[in-house]
Amino acid sequence: MVREDGRVRRGQGELEGQVLGALREADGPVTAAWVRRRLGGDLAPTTVVTILTRLLAKDVVSRERRGRSFVWTPTADVARLAALRMRRLLDGERDREAVLASFVTTLPPGDEQVLRALLDLPGTDAGGTGD
Fold first, then answer.
1. What is the pLDDT of residues 57-103, one digit of tens each?
2. Chain centre distance of CA 11
3. I need a labelling partner for 73 at 20 to 30 A (CA). Which of 16, 26, 61, 124 fits?
4. pTM, whole model, 2 decimals?
5. In this structure, is the dihedral angle defined by the CA atoms of residues 100, 103, 109 and 114, taken in order, positive or negative?
6. Are the C-beta atoms of 84 and 27 separated by less than 8 Å?
């Protein structure tokens, strides 16, 4: 979406995904300034640090002090970040079963097969036994 000032407005969570993606492309730990340059430099430095700090709270990046600043390293991929967002949305609903049922019934056949295969993996407790 383009705002009146001509700048692009990113969707919710899109910037987090872009920042995490940039970190995953790095050869090692990088600074927030490196991330900002990698994303095109149109973001305020404070915005990049805020996003990195949010990702740290979600446990998908780590940071280490180097000199007077921090360097950042990804600890998860963009898929994990998306899964965390999905989980947060689900946790905010009262009727989890209805939400899950609605989600599953709208999956395309290929995605439904993937989900079924994942639920059938050992250790997923898909049977609901709790053991």
1. 999 999 999 999 999 999 998 898 889 888 988 999 999 999 999 99
2. 13
3. 124
4. 0.70
5. negative
6. no
